Each structure stands twice: as structure tokens, then as C-alpha cells.
Amino acid sequence: MKMTFSHQAKKGFTLIELLVVIAILGALAGVGIPTVLSMIERSNVTAANKVCKDLVAGVQAFKDDHGVLPYNEEKIDDSESEVIVLTTDGENDADLVHILFNTEIGKDFNTEGRPYIKTDSVEDPTGGLYENGDVAGLYDPWGSPYYVFMRTSAEGSLTDPFTNTLLRNQYCIAYSTGTDRAGKHHDLDAPKAKSTKKGKNKKKKKSKDEEDVSDEPLRYPDYTAAEQEQIADNVYSWKKTED
Q1: Cβ neighbours for 198, distance < 8 A, ≥ 6 positions apart
Q2: Buried (b) or exposed (e) across 28-57, using 16+ Cβ within 10 A?
Q3: pLDDT at residue 87, rounded to an integer
Q4: What pLDDT does 128 receive?
């Protein structure tokens, strides 16, 4: 039997076909990358919001068990203050992180011998509990510490540090500065910044940074447009971030 073989050359991709494929892949990447980044950001916000709420729950649970708030009075400048503001960076937290996580240092205050908050331990100060020697800091997903407000008096409530609105029946609140790692309340940056003079100066011509973004009511009345932009991505324990 005589067998024949076909010598027909295999057809490859043309230049036009390759360009079309590359264009399609580029378009998919352009759509996919922002989507992935958006999902990561939403995940970070959710994680930070959970830690904020866990901090508040931990503080209140510690108070219920011990009858006192979880901080070292010797490391507070004004122990008579009605509201104490702490930063969970391991240096300005008055041992709050040590106490809530029940580290060796915290055990001197935590007689229950259990952690009041749990999170991942991390090797870098980002997205969890970072320990370096005797320093223990709690950091949000963007690498910034959380801010914690605690009311020392048995009666009363805290106020929203950005709007000064009353937050009823809350002895503790916490927040993260979000993606831009900015947007701290006035009382930390300039204790005397909020004064009655602000209201009297509203009619004066504003600088470029102070100009309002629109004619709509300001979300944070005591802040300039630049400051409002900074705090727009803050994450709070006491309200929804999309409000």
C-alpha cells in the first residue's frame, strides 16, 4: 500500500491577530486591576472597622471585670481629665495594648489573666499586633495606630471628636485614619483649635485650602475643605464609614 504524507505548512498567528490578543489582554487588565484594588481596600476597611469595635468591646469588658479602665495611670499626664485620648503605637497608649492583649507587662493590671482582644501578630507595624521588646503596638491595615477615647467618669457619654455630637452611653470609642493615614481630630493637633472665633470668622474671605468643595452643608462643620478631605476615609467604631 502506498502511503502519502501531506506537506502543508502549519498556519501561525498573524501580526494583526497578535495585536488583537494583546489589546484584549490589556483591556482586561485595565478593568481587573482597579477591581482587585477596590476589593483589597474594602477588605482593609472591614478589618479596621472590626478592630475599632473590638477595641471598644475589650475596654468595656475589662471595665466590667475590674471596675477600672485598662490603662496605666502613671503614664497619663492629666489623670484628672474626664476624657483620655490614647494612640495604640506602644508609646502613647499608657499600656492599653499590653493590658488588653495580656502581655507580660499587661499582666500586672489584668488580673483575669486573659486577652480582651485578639488579632494577628505581625513582624512589621502594619495590620495587627506588633511587638518589639517591651513595646506592643496595634496598627491598622495602612500602618497607622488606632486612636482610642475613654471617658473616666462613671456617668455621661463621649462626643464625636469630629462633629462634637453626643454619643450616648459610650465610655469608649476608637477610630483609624484610613488609607491616607491622615485626618486626626483637632484636639490632638491643636488643643485650642476649636474656639468660638471660628464662627465669627465665617464671613471672612477664605484661603484656597479653606474654600468649600460645594454649596452643600459641610460634613464636619468645624473643618476646612482640606481637612474634610483627609478625614473622609476614616474608619470608626461608632458609625458607618459610608455615612
Answers
A1: 222
A2: eeeeeeeeeeeeeeeebbebbbebbebbbe
A3: 94
A4: 95
**236 vs 231: CA distance, rounded Å:** 11
Q: pTM for this one? A: 0.73
| pLDDT at position 33 | 56
DSSP string, 80-95: T-SEEEEETTTTBSTT
In which residue ranges of the chain is pLDDT below 70? 1-13, 27-37, 78-80, 187-219, 241-243
Contact 210, 225 (CB under 8 A): yes
Q: How far apart are CA 91 and CA 96, in angstroms?
A: 10
Q: What are phi and psi of 98, to 5 degrees?
A: -55, -45
C-alpha count within 13 angstroms, C-beta hemisphere, residue 164: 8
176 forms beta bridges with 235
Q: Are 121 and 129 in contact (CB under 8 A)?
A: yes
Separation of alpha carbons 45 and 111, rounded Å: 33
